[in-house]
Design brief:
The complex is a heterodimer of chains A (361) and B (127). Chain A has six helices and 23 strands. Chain A has 361 residues and is an alpha+beta fold. Chain A has a 15-stranded mixed sheet that branches. Chain B is mainly β and 127 residues long. Chain B is 7% helix and 51% strand. In chain B, strands 1, 2, 3, 4, 5, 6, 7 and 8 form an eight-stranded antiparallel sheet that branches. In chain B, a hairpin with a 5-residue loop joins strand 6 and strand 7. The longest helix of chain B has 9 residues. Chain B is elongated. The model of chain B has no long low-confidence stretch (mean pLDDT 88). The chains are: A alpha+beta (361), B mainly beta (127). Chains A and B meet through strand 1 of A and strand 4 and strand 5 of B. Strand 1 of chain A pairs parallel with strand 5 of chain B.
Chain lengths: 361, 127
Amino acid sequence: MTVVSLISAPVTEVSAGVDLLTSTNVFVEDISADLKPDSSTIVRNMANKVHGTCDLSLQRELNWGKDRVRPWVEISADGETTTRWNMGVYAMVTPTREAGETPALWRVQGYDLLTVLDSPYGSTYSAAAGSVPLTLIAALLTAAGETNAISQAGIALTLPAAKTWPIDQDNTTLLIINELLAAIGYGPLWCDREGRFRSDPIVVMASKSAMWAYDADDEFTTTVGMDRSVEADFFNTPNRWVFIRDDAGESVGAEGSGIYTVSNTSTGPTSQAGRGRTINKIERLQATSQAALIAQGNAIVAADIRGAASIAISVQTNPEHWHDDVVTYVDAQLGVSGKWAVAEWRLDLGGALMSMKLESI
Amino acid sequence: MAETDFTRVWFHLASDLTDSLELNLPANGWTSPRSGVGETRRLAAGRTVAVTRPGTTRVASVSVIITDRDQVSWLEEKINRQVLVRSPRGHRLWGTYQVVDVPEPTGRNYNAICTLSVSEVTVSEIV
């Protein structure tokens, strides 16, 4: 049985559990018996600085500031096929216990491991001209004790000029890494299902393959719930973007050499033709090359256009979703069809419908 | 003439099995259905699917005949405690109950029927 037929089967059994891990992601114990799945959720929002969060109800006190947990979901269809998905590694931060509950119950929110890097670097960080951003990032992750699974496709790229992040509350390790990644045309850091850190060269969402096909009109195989809505948002969506390469010591260049301009003249309702006017957005970006500037610029353009139309849907539990997914969605009642980016999903460990926010691409 | 078949049911406190209570059970006084957990869900385009959760639950409905005040006190003291209930046919059920509701007798004899809902809990009986 394929994963598609498993998740869209007419009778499915959803079970969930939690693994307890050490602060270095080493498995300690399966504590699923202490989890209350009905009041536990996993949420992933691609626009947040720390993408993944979880809300768990646990009947066990953990070493909250240190222990990590790895929730998992298992689905079987009619008792035959069982597949398990790990749903990320989380640091537990805000346990709440109410008086009078026996056995004691802790409701705790956890953040994915990006939160480990989201604290001030603690001293001035300097990157010399000619240094390799991916090597610098590897050293930062090693120092933090985390696992580096970043694509090494850009290992030959170097910084054209020295760059310094002075000691400051806002200059976090995560910010330094993300700015180094952006400089070579990589997307922001994210964590995979096993708590490893990943990033890849930016690919425009529209050119990505869809990882799932949702069809609200198929009465035999649909996994889409009854409640769904579409929303358009035209507020200040730009239709002309000017990206300027912002490297210290370099003067503002010209189009094609330090400047990259994108105009949406006629595509979609937010285009210059659609709005009847031009709405500019000017952004300075750090980039090692014109190609990296273009890659970052295209990602910003795609994100701005994405937000102009969104769909809120609920679907059967689908733990195949993870980060920056693209899906196809067909819905005659909403009058939509095509590829959409998954901006946010919320998975209920108790098997309730999974809510998703899709954005147009 | 209708005939009532009385038989016995035994309650034991799980933490001290010698602390027990023997009560009369009216005919058909014990039912213990086992239930699966899940729901049938309506999706878009009119499709219906069933989503279930692992495991099953059992809640026994045990009606007992109360003949004196001490029996009520024993049952009330064991609310939310883990108990072992044994049926006349040898059925053993480890569980707990939350409500003891005994009507006050109106006649000369204390002979009231009390129905307890005993929710089964998983217990290892390895010895």
